[in-house]
Amino acid sequence: MDEHETPYEQGARETVELGNQIAEAASDATLSEVADGLLAGAIQYWLYAHQPCGDPACEECKPLCTAELRLDALRKTLEDFARSSEYFHTPEDFDAGRA
Ligand SMILES: [Zn+2]
User: Fold this and answer.
1) How many independent structural domains does the chain possess?
2) Are 70 and 47 in contact (CB under 8 A)?
3) Cα 76 to averaged position of ligand 1 atoms, centre (Å)
């Protein structure tokens, strides 16, 4: 572990490590089952962490002040993470170029 690692980097790295540990311990589980569980927990944590403070005049909370606004922000965040993942495109994709 890098001592200069940010909480963001640590969270991302440890989530992958946790997934590997769970998959190793539960040999009958599929990787997608483990991944769905990790994602469910991550979404729960994200929603918990992005609750508005309760002040109706708070400018900082305004962009995320309703469930639908938070869901939009979560979708945007999720899409950004997915598109920047090294696993977003795979050589086995049906639309992958074949030479
Ligand atoms: Zn606020």
Assistant:
1) 2
2) yes
3) 21
User: What's the CA-to-centroid distance between 61 and ligand 1, angstroms?
Assistant: 4
Q: What is the pLDDT of residues 21-65, one digit of tens each?
A: 999 999 898 999 999 999 999 999 999 999 999 999 999 999 999
Please enumerate in sequence order all residues whose Cβ is within 8 A of that of 2, keeping only pairs 6 or more positions apart, or say none.
9
Supply the pTM of this predicted model. 0.85
User: HSE on the CB side for 98, CA within 13 Å?
Assistant: 4
What letter does residue 4 receive in the DSSP assignment? Answer: T
Neighbouring residues of 53: CB distance < 8 A, sequence distance ≥ 6 = 60, 61
Residue 25 domain flag: yes
The helix (run of H) or strand (run of E) holding residue 7 is helix 7-25
For residue range 78-87, what is the model confidence (pLDDT) as tens digits? 999 999 999 9
Domain that holds residue 9: 1-49
